[in-house]
Amino acid sequence: MFIGQIGYYNGKCPNRTDVEEIVKNSVSAQFGGDATIVPALLRLQFHDCFVRGCDASILLDGNNTEKTASPNLTVRGYDVIDKAKSDVEEKCPGVVSCADIIIMAAREAVVLGGGSFYNVTTGRRDGLISNASEAVDLLPPAEIPVGDSIALFENLGLNVSDMVTLIGAHTVGVAHCSSFQDRLYNYNNTGMADPTMNHLLLNSLKGTCPQNSTNDNMANLDQNSLSANTVDNSFFIEIQENEGVLGIDQEIDLDTRTNATVKILANNNSVFLTQFAAALVKLGAVNVLLDPMGEIRTSCRSINGSPSPPPPPGHP
Length: 316
Fold this sequence. Notes:
mainly alpha, Peroxidase, domain 1, Peroxidase, domain 2, two-stranded antiparallel ribbon, 13 helices, 42% helix, disordered C terminus
């Protein structure tokens, strides 16, 4: 597994340029105009690392790339990475991979969201392959059973505690109605709501997601309105009250293989923040490309020497 190096880029840029500081300043400036980049960047790291490892393959434009896969159509934050990459290239051209920028940007997102600072290891290379079909096959759907989710994470070297902790990223962000509507109206093809869902939450979500509506509205994943945009353990407290929005969110509290970890994280915010940081570092080490198997892209959207088509309309 990739170990990397803390401060890998120290001394590799002109004028002692601090790459991590550039990424921090770039992400912070963009956060000032849009706080929702916090969940966007966390999700971007997750979706990148789960397919071919943490190689920035999700950033590549083109027909049938990961970016075009159905699970990634609502992924955001590409523009944030583009700006951070541009800022880094201005001071340190041709040295820093887009894969590392994703990892650094996600760390800044955690901090901006109220989470703990943690050191990241760097030294990754950018991938040369990006296939939509792999994203469809490998990214876990919202309704994935706990057992299947455990197996999926284990295939990446992540244990049950890592899985539960990383699902805690749902302490920020939203879900589209299409991701959980079956729980409201036709759970397991019963024609009824999921009996495990808190009734107040059920009624609220039915108001947000009317049956047969053509609008794919959104709901906060953390139902605590005071901390829906804060990286904390509120999500785990909520699911203990049967207020999980996605199926997998609620199931990790109901399943005996995972509910002990849920209880630990719900009971202590400091423990959650520490374990969340550690799990993100571990996720960032999955199937990483090293020299000479990858490259340092000039543009995060295209392989070096390959023209990058413009992003599709409405797709930042």
